[in-house]
Amino acid sequence: MSESSSGLERERAISRTFHARGVPLLVSPHLLRERSLGQLDLVRIHKGEEGWLIEVVEVKSSLTGGQALLRGQRARIIHAANFLAGVFGHPVRFLLSFQSTGDEEEN
Questions:
Q1: What is the pLDDT of residue 9?
Q2: What does the pLDDT read at residue 102?
Q3: Domain spans in the chain, listed from the N-terminal domain onward
Q4: The CA-based dihedral angle spanning residues 67, 27, 57, 9, taken in that order and rounded to the nearest 10 degrees
Q5: What is the spatial distance between Cα 84 and Cα 10, in angstroms, rounded to a whole number?
Q6: Distance (Å, rounded) from C-alpha 94 to C-alpha 90?
Q7: Coil, strand or helix: which one is 14?
Q8: Phi-psi sector, 5: left (phi>0), alpha (psi -120 to 50), beta
Q9: Which is nearest to 72 in space by CA: 98, 27, 40, 38?
Q10: Taking residues 97-107, what's their average pLDDT?
Q11: What is the DSSP letter of 40?
């Protein structure tokens, strides 16, 4: 199995676990690009103790990828998440997931 296909399998596993705990939201990359917003890897909405919450996960293959996110891509993703908050009228939580472990880290 090549590195890219094994990475894709890990991302699919993270997606299955993440989306099993809420309602998956499919967000059009075209819609986001039209507004100069960052593309979103995984998005779900679920109802918790304090009401509805939208969760956005950015999947990175390594800590280095996560550090790069902090330098550039993060602002566009945050703007995209805030756009969803405005559309749905619910708060958003942004999480970072590393493919090697599937662990999520809140940001």
A1: 78
A2: 44
A3: 3-106
A4: -90
A5: 26
A6: 13
A7: helix
A8: alpha
A9: 38
A10: 54
A11: -
User: What φ, ψ does residue 27 adopt, rounded to 5°?
Assistant: -110, 125
Q: What is the dihedral of CA 79, 80, 82, 83, to 10 degrees?
A: 120
- What are the contacts of 18-25 at 24+ separation with CB within 8 A? 18/42, 18/44, 18/55, 18/57, 18/97, 19/44, 21/46, 22/46, 22/55, 25/54, 25/84
Only one residue has tokens 């969803």, namely 84
Q: Which of 14, 4, 27, 20 is nearest to 95 (CA)?
A: 14
Per-residue pLDDT reduced to its tens digit, 36-71? 898 888 999 999 888 999 999 888 766 555 566 666
Q: How many Å apart are CA 46 and CA 51, to the nearest integer? A: 8
